[in-house]
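Weekly sync, protein design subgroup
Attendees: M.S., D.O., the rotation student, P.L. (late)

Item 1: inverse folding check
M.S. brought a backbone from last month's batch and wanted to see whether the design step gives back something sensible before we order anything. D.O. pointed out we never logged the input encoding, so this time it goes straight into the notes. Structure tokens as presented (129 positions):
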């Protein structure tokens, strides 16, 4: 009898590189490195968006194909957070918000750590699954 190997959980980061005056794009490599180190048993997928439409389409596509335990992490400002909420609603995806915009009002209101480092560390602690 053959055993089917379990697929690793997927952590997809969709980043609006222009958020926070370009800060999101500048810190994305550090975010990717930390997630790769902190979640060694997960498959990490980084998607950079250059427009609202592209971010919306990528976020929705990833959320629709998510299996239970997969994480869709949106990185940017309030616009990305709203895209993530809408995309993940009614799917098996778990939403994570990495606030890298200028205001980050939604993250603050939801009790999400207010800076990129702390949000990434929270995601590493929670992990997929």
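Designed sequence read out in the meeting:
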């Amino acid at each position: 009898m053959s055993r089917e190997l379990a697929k690793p959980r997927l952590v997809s980061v969709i980043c609006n590189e222009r958020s926070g005056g370009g800060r999101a794009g500048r810190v994305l490599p550090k975010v990717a490195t930390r997630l790769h180190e902190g979640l060694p048993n997960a498959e990490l997928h980084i998607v950079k968006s250059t427009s609202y439409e592209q971010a919306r389409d990528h976020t929705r596509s990833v959320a629709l194909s998510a299996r239970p335990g997969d994480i869709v992490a949106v990185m940017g400002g309030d616009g990305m957070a709203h895209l993530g909420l809408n995309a993940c609603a009614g799917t098996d995806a778990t939403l994570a918000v990495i606030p890298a915009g200028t205001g980050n009002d939604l993250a603050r209101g939801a009790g999400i750590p207010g800076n990129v480092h702390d949000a990434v560390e929270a995601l590493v602690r929670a992990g997929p699954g």
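Discussion: Residues 23-38 form the longest helix (16 residues). The mean pLDDT is 89.
Action: P.L. to compare against the previous round before Friday.
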